[in-house]
Input
Amino acid sequence: MFAAGTGPAADPAGDRHERRIRSFQPRRSRVTTAQREALLRLWPQWGLEVDGESVLDLPALFAGRPVVLEIGFGMGEATAAMAAADPDTGILAVDVHTPGQGNLLRLAEERGLTNVRVANGDAIILLREMLPPASLAGLRVYFPDPWPKKRHHKRRIIQRDFIDLAVTRLAPGALLHCATDWEPYADAMLETLTASPTLTNLSPTATFTPRPETRPLTRFESQGLSKGHAVKDLLFRHEP
Output
């Protein structure tokens, strides 16, 4: 879809890392003209490939700002809103959805945002191979695929192995924020996060929290709420 060096790669890590069950499926269809133009124009400046080949210099990428990693940003509207509301924090947003990558880049340009970088590829490889220990001020995972069928639960991203890896990249005091509208997955997330010895639940009831004002209400979420879905937020602090 894109010539070499002009846009996100189809599989940036290639065969250089182990094959395993993944929590995502790459989707590169239905890219609009505006999204494609944004990718072609802005990817060399604001995009990066998750190839697992080098450790990122986050202070250089974000001009010394503290950095939050957002895994799975959909079409990027909420990410852009959070970046605009908090320009002193860098957002490293990783996804494999090409239209969303293009849309987030477009929004960042339109709004003059300099604190967003878009990563293309596997979040596990990004965390494990490309981020230094204790380098993140926060981690956001909003509305990940719930994989509702029991035989697919192994594909869910919020599992013990993932959290064990993620906390090694969180700085002391970093916030881990998850949200889902799939209640069984919310319960499983709560159990997994509570079991981590370095994470402290910020809910006064040790369960879920109301949606923080810092997390914008997305169109996807609004549609779910109108259908009676219950959205659950989980907010934990890393305290090693």
